[in-house]
Write a structure and sequence with these properties.
- With 153 residues, this protein is mostly helical.
- The chain has one domain (3-28, 38-152).
- Helices cover 63% and strands 7% of the residues.
- It is built from 7 helices and 2 strands, in the order E-H-H-H-E-H-H-H-H.
- It has a two-stranded antiparallel ribbon with strand order 1-2.
- It is globular.
- It starts with a strand and ends with a helix.
- This is DUF2017 domain-containing protein.
């Protein structure tokens, strides 16, 4: 089984976990991307929405579970065949929600390139932007280092 282990700096990552938890809590009863423009009957829409919400919650739970007691002792997190896809999706859900809720004043290009002067951000926005970039880095690690077969199911 292919596995990626990453050692993170606790002083840098610990404050970002509060942001991740807050944003994940805001997604407990709503999808990061609502199914507004899907043409299906109402019953099917509800079933589909419920299934997607369960999948989103599972991914968020797996992502947050990586930052457990062991993480605070070792600073290590790991990605493998079992958690790669749910964590990838959870990172995307959190990033989408952050963009919608906190970062909507930034253009797509500046957010995706990381071309934002962190010192110019208001203090409450700094950890949100740093968390956004951190989650993008997790996504990039998974995509670059795990076989495409893992991500394709």
């Amino acid at each position: 089984m292919k596995r990626i282990e990453v050692k993170l700096s606790l002083p840098v990552v610990a404050p970002l976990l509060d942001v991740m938890k807050t944003v994940a809590d805001s997604l407990q009863d709503r999808l990061a991307v609502p199914l507004e423009h899907v043409e299906v009957d109402e019953d099917m829409h509800e079933v589909w929405n419920a299934d997607l919400l369960v999948t989103q919650k599972d991914g968020l739970s797996r992502l947050l579970a990586m930052f457990d007691k062991e993480f605070f002792e070792s600073g290590m997190i790991a990605f493998d065949e079992e958690n790669a896809e749910p964590i990838l999706r959870a990172c995307a859900a959190l990033r989408l929600r952050m963009r919608e809720q906190y970062l909507k004043n930034f253009g797509d290009e500046s957010l995706e390139s990381g071309d934002v002067e962190i010192d110019e951000l208001p203090e409450p926005m700094r950890p949100v932007f740093m968390c956004y970039v951190f989650l993008a880095t997790i996504q990039e690690l998974i995509i670059q280092h795990l076989d495409s077969e893992i991500l394709e199911g």
